[in-house]
## 1
Amino acid sequence: MTEVGRALDAFEADGEIGAIVITGSERAFAAGADIKEMQNRTFQERYGGNFLAHWNRISTVKKPVIGAVNGFALGGGCEWAMMCDVIYAGEKAQFGQPEILLGTIPGEILLITLILN
Ligand SMILES: CC(C)(COP(=O)(O)OP(=O)(O)OC[C@H]1O[C@@H](n2cnc3c(N)ncnc32)[C@H](O)[C@@H]1OP(=O)(O)O)[C@@H](O)C(=O)NCCC(=O)NCCSC(=O)CCO
């Protein structure tokens, strides 16, 4: 997400860019946070270390952001899609929050977004 954040910073500052399209591959838009990286960290390490510090950057970009989604948009990937101003979903797009099966809850913005909508 740090790299995506840097790219969004650059696009926002570039006067030649009017809108931003975020996409993935045909198979997956994004499968969410790296479970392997998360699994051995305690709550204190993740929270104190600002593990999700840049996750909501998509929602703060001051240019229209379009999420072009195909394949899996899971966990944080689903949240990324929901942060876009417009979601353009292909027929094979699948949205979900499977992290509840790991005993965790959507980490960043999903619950707030659902309540607001
Ligand atoms: C994305 C799925 C549906 C793909 O399933 P499949 O095609 O069967 O492929 P897999 O063999 O399951 O996966 C291939 C390979 O990718 C690794 N992987 C997939 N997702 C992640 C991930 N989120 N983090 C880390 N690694 C991931 C998987 O372990 C395999 O690696 P190998 O080394 O080859 O074994 C399926 O993989 C799936 O459902 N993934 C979990 C999605 C998920 O739970 N996302 C939420 C993450 S928590 C989060 O986002 C916090 C914010 O709330």
## 2
Amino acid sequence: MLPLEEKQKYPMAPGTVQGYGQAFVFSEDQKLDWCNMFALGIEPQYVRNPNLWPKKPEKFSETVEEYSGEIRKLCYNLLTYIALGLGLKGDEFEEMFGVSVQAVRMNYYPPCSRPDLVLGLSPHSDGSALTVLQQAKGGPVGLQILKDNTWVPIQPIPNALVINIGDTIEVLTNGKYRSVEHRAVAHEEKARLSIVTFFAPSYEVELGPMPEFVDENHPCKYKIYNHGEYSKHYVTNKLQGKKTLEFAKIQTKNTN
Ligand SMILES: O=C(O)CCC(=O)C(=O)O
Ligand SMILES: [Fe+2]
């Protein structure tokens, strides 16, 4: 592992999500997650901050480029099959998304002597369309998803990626496919590393439920909004379950 002073050459500035540090921290009183992150914007080029690309290890940048190129192809393939599975044209999402925004985040969860007192990463859904999550070999179970109000641990499968549906797909399908609420827990003795790719529409894209998923039995749940604004809202708020998705919800009158 790189020494701290090397990592600190690439700091995540307050209110930003790229570089080394802790994201989603908004107050002195906030209980911090037991996790160090290193995050980079990958595509399109304008989301990159070259000053944050580490010079060490020597092959880091080349490896990230190669890995991200392959994951990008995978995401486009997944979106094709998801579209076909939903009865849409295979290239529906690709066309709608424009030049998709891709970012990578490496989450390092050190061992914690009192894992019962902390969370590795607070509950949230991802603000992406799809998330591709890779877990380092030999690490402990850390990822959990919320299913029927119960946190279910996701056993890492060797050489397998975990694919999560993000908020964009939930909105586009008017809730037919829901973004998964998840969190990470720390382990008493073992460190854990996850490498997570977020794949999302271009920031200019206006999103809302597709007409195919709205009818009298399925009223429109989300408004039309700009994805760039949603992303901004997402990264400037605390991780708190699926709360950020409320940004996109059509407010129904409270009839109580
Ligand atoms: O480490 C994990 O398994 C979860 C990471 C995650 O949810 C994220 O980075 O958004
Ligand atoms: Fe996540």
